[in-house]
Design brief:
The complex is a heterotrimer of chains A (about 700), B (about 170) and C (about 120). Chain A contains 20 helices and 22 strands. By secondary structure, chain A is α+β, with helices and mostly antiparallel strands. The chains are: A alpha+beta (about 700), B mainly beta (about 170), C alpha/beta (about 120).
Chain lengths: ~700, ~170, ~120
């Protein structure tokens, strides 16, 4: 397959994914105009692409669909469930025929004819109900300016060419520029390289007078410039004004601005705004600043090879680390100018880092669309009522990770739908709601991202799993395993608890492949389940985004980094208060906040100083404080993994190398808090038992 | 012809080893497994980690975990001297290659030895668990244990490698 | 036919950043490393349409270079843009007196660079 074809297919796949998303959204918000626009846009683009790549069958097919949605768009047809279902079928058909553009496959040919028949029917039956009004033209209005530009005679001496300035003005809108010549001196005084021309310029533009003045920025001191707004609309084409300008051409007397404005006033309907003239002579007066209106931007995208992205990210990481060293150097050497420069470097590298790393990240809800489609289709086939919820769609993941995860997640989801959620009657008999709930959740914690699929179905029967594993010879009857270990058996190759093979989830033997895909991404998967209550699978993945904004702190001369994203506020507290607190609670800002005395928990002796810093962290719904010796400041950390040896110490999510070469440990505050609250609970329990 | 063959055989069968000391005990490791030898830089300790994990150090911009080899062998924790150093080792851990630093009391020398001169380690009366010892080497009248470091540094539990669970105390004078 | 722009700066990275910005906008770029080198470049490429020069350079600085250019017959009216930092107000004035056509303040973005060029060349 040649490169062009590959490009076409890549783009077509993207377009079809967008189309699917829009159609799904339309299903629940059928009056939302923007989705209809999107559907139409995608079809239009796909039609164009297919034409260009010499695929007339596809182009014509899409053209018909486009016709329908165009009619819906302008209100000539109304969207109905049948039409939407048909569109979904067309979408599926398109996914297939982009690979079989000649319809060489008999089945494809039949489907194709079938669908065209349906589409044509729809077109012929259009209804006359208007759905949406036409959008108003909201283009920004142009104003008309009069600009008087008289350069000083010696203006050529510094290389200025006034014509370039005129041409820049011409780029701002419709204009007429009329040159005039000053009275030339007598022959013997005439110096040929002096400027004796001046101009009357009439300009229609939506830019402000400040923008116009900006054109003359280099020559302000060497010319006379007057900018006057003469109309709040475009009047250059008005015959009266045109006549006025013609007179100006043949008239060497300086244009009477008052007369011009009076004329302009009669031409426009609206009265002239006050104080609209600006005069600059040898440039010092301030101009009235008008708000600049941004013209609509086209958000376009381009394809970039991932090799280039990888290299870019590596370089950015190195840059961030080097810049940290530079900042440190500047601070140590206290050279004023250097500090300013390094501050700028820091700002720029931060922005660069954000943009570079952002490039490979894609919000996970791109995947969600496919899942929603699948849930919709499968629940129909199975005759089960299923509510599919998603949370955290804006969580961003590296594009390749999303691609690798899609299949495993699909599989887990299918299992939930097929084996997890019970049929409506069965659920009611158990006292549950008729429709089952499947939730897909994504969120960050520390330097990991979690993706959770949970259902409120029948759960996993531990005993059944155990029995199956014994019968398959995976474990011995005498083996004693914890519940977690039994759940882990599900991922064993060749394991399946499906009572029968369904055509939806296959044989259920994919779980070992699922686990392998996840461990390939250096992640892990956890199963939690209760019979009749439901099952939750949690996938934990390390973030490839390895730079975070953090707060650099010190405990016992060791540096730690707390991610800024979790910090609410910092306080200075007295050590005495911490020691004397009841149940490790402190009152901060009139609120009782539980805290962890980190120095003590880490096993270091108490500090001789009187104060510590308390950093209040968001931990899910509540706030928890952690105390440190000192806060050094904000720090942009390139996070590196600690490695396998420190797997158990998961409250440290990584390490960062500071500008001076020492290491700072990056804390995962959620894990930290879990660790110490567990401890307290166990301690309490023991105390109670005694 | 015959001489040539022998020569080739000889070259293949020779390996390089580095010998080092933990307290008074001598050990050896294949040089192939050693990436470099460092003087001990600033070590950052990670809280709540087992004793044998001393901490992490900055190795040219990368994070290197450092293990106290003495604790691993049931000896008292290492005491820093001017000779103490870190062997940066490349070991195989669960199908992956991992870089880890091993802190030792001193390094002695690098020497070559033919494989056939490696003697099997004694199974009885050995202080250390047999699976970690690849064999015994005698170099210049000094017996030393050749370590299978993949196994040595793979076991992550606190348990020492000593056969008996007791700590082996050394005469403070040594 | 591409327009030639001459860039003079003793810092290679600045030269290359500017050159890349200009080349991507369709100009052809000639590079000089200081004022003296710049004069040689002019001699060898007489059809240069615009010069962008730094001020602080070894061997021959920007102001001296500018004065030489304005003295010459061929390039008297050539537009010359100087690169300056915020704090160099005095230098900017000196440059204007020496005949600079315009200026760009460092640091600048590619967009700003192209906006300035619009004013002095096509």
């Amino acid at each position: 397959m040649d490169a062009m074809r590959i490009t076409y297919l890549e783009e077509a796949n993207d377009l079809l994914a967008n189309l699917e998303r829009a159609l799904l959204a339309l299903e629940t918000n059928d009056n939302d105009k923007s989705y209809i626009e999107e559907v139409f846009r995608v079809m239009h683009t796909l039609k164009g692409n297919s034409s260009m790549f010499g695929l007339p069958v596809i182009a014509e097919f899409v053209h018909d669909l486009e016709t329908i949605y165009d009619m819906i768009r302008v209100g000539e047809m109304q969207l109905s469930k049948e039409l939407l279902d048909c569109t979904f079928s067309c979408l599926d058909h398109l996914k297939i025929i982009i690979h079989d553009s000649n319809l060489s496959n008999e089945i494809n040919k039949d489907n194709h004819e079938n669908l065209i028949h349906q589409i044509t029917d729809f077109i012929n039956q259009k209804s006359g109900v208007l759905t949406a009004p036409k959008e108003e033209n909201t283009a920004r209005k142009s104003k008309t300016f009069y600009i008087y530009f008289e350069p000083n005679p010696g203006i050529f001496e510094n290389g200025t060419n006034p014509l370039f300035l005129l041409s820049e003005l011409a780029g701002m809108g419709n204009n007429k520029a009329i040159p005039h010549f000053k009275v030339l001196p007598e022959n013997k005084e005439f110096v040929s390289d002096e400027c004796f021309t001046y101009w009357d310029i009439y300009l229609e533009t939506d830019k402000s007078d400040k923008d116009i003045l900006d054109v003359f920025v280099f020559v302000e001191g060497q010319s006379k410039i007057e900018i006057t707004e003469i109309a709040t609309s475009s009047i250059l084409n008005d015959p009266l004004f045109d006549e006025f300008i013609r007179r100006d051409i043949y008239n060497d007397v300086k244009t009477d601005v008052k007369e011009m404005m009076a004329l302009a006033g009669t031409i426009q309907e609206k009265p002239l705004p006050k104080k609209d003239s600006v005069e600059i002579v040898n440039g010092t007066k301030e101009t009235k600043v008008q708000k600049k209106d941004k013209s609509e931007k086209n958000i376009s995208s381009i394809r970039v090879s991932s090799d280039k992205l990888d290299e870019l990210m590596n370089l950015v990481s190195e840059l961030v680390t080097t810049q940290a060293g530079l900042t440190l150097f500047a601070a140590n050497n206290k050279i004023a100018e250097l500090e300013v420069i390094t501050e700028n470097v820091e700002k720029l590298s931060r922005r660069l880092r954000d943009i570079a790393f952002g490039m490979t990240l894609v919000p996970i809800n791109n995947m969600f669309g496919r899942f929603q489609r699948m849930v919709r289709d499968v629940s129909g086939i199975l005759g089960k009522e299923i509510e599919f919820l998603t949370e955290g769609g804006e969580t961003e993941l590296d594009k390749t990770i999303i691609e690798t995860l899609t299949d495993p997640l699909m599989h887990i989801l299918r299992n939930s739908l097929d084996h997890g959620i019970e049929k409506g009657d069965e659920r009611e008999a158990k006292g549950k709601s008729r429709s089952g709930k499947v939730t897909l959740k994504a969120f960050y914690s520390g330097v990991f991202v979690y993706i959770q699929i949970s259902d409120d179905g029948k759960g996993i029967d531990v005993d059944a799993v155990r029995a199956k594993a014994i019968s398959k010879g995976i474990i011995k009857p005498t083996d004693s395993l914890s519940e977690k270990e039994i759940f882990d058996l599900i991922f064993y190759p060749g394991f399946s608890t499906a009572q029968k093979v369904t055509d939806v989830s296959g044989r259920g033997v994919g779980m070992d492949v699922v686990k392998r895909n996840i461990t390939d991404l250096k992640g892990s998967i956890l199963v939690e389940s209760k019979v009749d209550e439901g099952t939750t699978l949690t996938i934990k993945l390390p973030l490839t985004l390895s730079i975070i904004d953090g707060l650099l702190v010190v405990i016992n001369q060791v540096n730690y980094i707390v991610p800024l994203s979790v910090i609410t506020k910092c306080y200075a507290v007295n050590n005495k208060d911490m020691v004397n607190s009841f149940n490790n609670l402190l009152v901060l800002d009139d609120e009782q906040v539980p805290f962890i005395h980190l120095r003590e928990e880490f096993g270091y002796p108490a500090l001789p100083t009187a104060q510590s810093q308390m950093i209040v962290i968001n931990n899910g719904e509540r706030k928890v404080g952690i105390s440190v010796d000192n806060i050094i400041g904000e720090y942009q950390a390139v996070v590196k993994p600690l490695g396998k040896y420190y797997k158990k110490q998961d409250f440290v999510s990584g390490a960062s190398i500071l500008g001076d070469g020492t290491i700072a440990l990056v804390l995962d505050t959620n894990k930290l808090i879990d660790l110490y609250t567990e401890k307290t609970q166990t301690e309490e329990k023991t105390w109670q038992l005694n | 012809m015959a001489t040539k063959l022998n020569k080739d055989e000889k070259i293949e069968a020779t390996k390089s080893f580095l010998s080092f000391k933990l307290a008074e005990e001598h050990f050896a490791i294949e040089v192939m497994k050693i990436m470099e030898i460092l003087e001990v830089p600033k070590i950052t300790k990670v809280p709540h980690a087992p004793d044998f994990l001393v901490g992490v150090v900055n190795l040219r911009g990368g994070v290197l975990p450092v293990i106290d080899a003495r604790i691993k062998f049931g000896l008292r924790p290492i005491e820093m001297t001017v000779d103490t150093c870190i062997l940066v080792l490349s070991i195989g851990l669960n199908d992956e290659t991992v870089t880890v630093g091993a802190m030792v009391d001193s390094v002695s020398e690098v020497f070559e030895m033919e494989e056939k001169h490696i003697q099997p380690s004694p199974s009885i009366g050995s202080k250390y668990r047999a699976e970690f010892i690849q064999g015994m080497i005698k170099e210049k009248d000094q017996f030393m244990m050749l370590l299978d470091i993949d196994k040595v540094f793979s076991s992550q539990e606190l348990e020492s490698l000593a056969d008996n669970q007791q700590e082996i105390h050394l005469d403070p004078a040594t | 036919m591409k327009k030639n722009i001459l860039i003079i700066d003793d810092s290679e990275s600045i030269r290359e950043v500017i050159a890349t910005g200009l080349e991507s906008a369709g100009y052809a770029v000639i590079r000089g490393v200081n004022g003296e080198d710049g004069l040689n470049c002019l001699k060898n490429n007489p059809d240069v349409e615009l010069i962008i020069t730094d001020l602080n350079m070894p061997v021959m600085d920007g102001i001296s270079f500018l004065k030489e250019v304005r003295k010459s017959d061929k390039h008297k009216y050539l537009p010359v843009i100087i690169l300056t930092t915020e704090s160099q107000e005095i230098k900017k004035q000196e440059a204007r007196n020496a005949g600079a056509t315009g200026w760009i303040i460092k640091p600048f973005s590619r967009e700003k660079l192209l906006n300035v060029i619009k004013k002095v060349v096509h």
